[in-house]
Amino acid sequence: MVNNFARITGGADLHCLELTEGLRQRGHEVRWLATASDRNLETEGDFVPYAVDAQSREKLSAAGRLRAARWAFWNPHAAAAADHLIRSFRPDVVHVHKTYVQLSVAPVIVAARHHVPVVQTAHDYEFVSASAVDSTGGSWDRDESRFSYQALNSATMLTRRFLHKPRVSRWIAVSRDLSRIYRETAGVNMEVIPNFTDPSPVPPVAFGEREGVVFVGRLSPEKGVEHVLEAARLNPGIPFTIVGDGPLAGRVKSLASDIGNLRFPGFVDNSEGRALLRGARVCAMPSLWREPGSLVGLEAMSEGTPVVTYSRGGLAEYVADAGAGVVLPERDGPPELAAAIASLHADGDGWERFSKAGREAVGTVHSRPAYLESLESVYRSVPGPEFRPASGG
Question: Do residue 187 and residue 211 come from a single domain?
Fold first, then answer.
């Protein structure tokens, strides 16, 4: 299992950790290649130094920025760790998730040298565009805040396209919408396996015992945070809670003192986030990008909390397929979002239908067993590993 982080910094990390647990429960041996941290939740494997992350990147020295840029193209520690794991563990498959910019293309190149098949799960659009949140095939990253990082992501796009992509044996998409974008924009055919989450360990909280609206996620423009803030202003009688961290955290914190019905507890761990979803009547997720397959949306469905979102991407696909909430037209904005939230917050009968449908979908289409069965089918379909030591050993 190859992923930048063995701790939870986003949905892809949580997915990898839960996937590892499920594979081990089904009798598979799993080792990780990720970056080292005292907060890692996975310890079996090789863990390498990293040059930069979201917390440290603004504080890097000139030498640190140069090293981060160099390792984004080729991380020598990740290459050595991949070589060691393949020689010692001899995996049947290398399953890659997020490797940029920490681990680089190195693990994929090393796996190919050893003739071990690579399965790649796409969690965003990083093999379509320079920016991971751009579904249009753009060759320049216009989403990063600093020019240096825009340039780095745009340059590593060439590595992703010409070195990484050709060495992947099988591709996995977390939604039909993501698969379509990759096929039409990048010419990549993918197996669609929708994301999973576990059913809530406790019975759902009844409509009358819940209150308010919750947003859980990265506080960045593409997540529609500004739309949630405006919806809170337009619904002063409904409590709103915004949870997370990111570039808009300062703005949300500032506005929480001005908007009387808005609460901002900051970043919380996954269990606290689930508790907030469990107690809310509505989960607001007005993503402005084509969110491929939100785990927060599935967690809300697991807790019986209907989701309100816009009709773009895999998130809308999950909600619409399950009948687990309200999917607004893509052209709609904060006024329509606020009205939909207010209507659902007051509609007990409609709420009950959405709540039940969401929980049923988590127990079937989005269950861990269903995901693992499909994944094992993909693993079985790749060419069998033919271990041939790379040159030099």
Answer: no
Phi-psi region of 63 (alpha: psi -120 to 50; beta: other; left: phi over 0): alpha
Same domain, 113 and 211: no
Do residue 125 and residue 244 come from a single domain?
no
CB-based contact 2:97 (threshold 8 Å): yes
3 within some domain = no
The pLDDT assigned to 155 comes to 93
**CA angle, residues 336, 293, 216, in degrees to nearest 5:** 60
Residues 189/262, Cβ–Cβ less than 8 Å: no
Looking at the chain, how many residues does it have? 393
Question: Which residues lie below 8 Å from residue 255, measured CB to CB, with a gap of 6+?
Answer: 229, 262
- Per the CB < 8 A criterion, the answer to whether 122 and 190 are in contact is yes
What is the pTM assigned to this prediction?
0.92
Q: Is residue 196 within 8 Å of 298, Cβ to Cβ?
A: yes
Read off the DSSP letter of residue 222: G
Distance CA(98)–CA(31), nearest Å, equals 16
Residue 202 resides in a domain:
no
Contact status, residue 14 vs residue 4, Cβ threshold 8 Å: no
Residue 385 has pLDDT above 80, yes or no: no
Strand, coil or helix: what is 199? coil
CB-facing half-sphere around the CA of 243: CA atoms within 13 A: 20
pLDDT in tens, 122-144: 999 999 999 999 999 999 999 88
Q: How many domains does the chain have?
A: 2
Residue 237, domain member (yes or no): yes
Q: Are residues 260 and 336 in the same domain?
A: yes
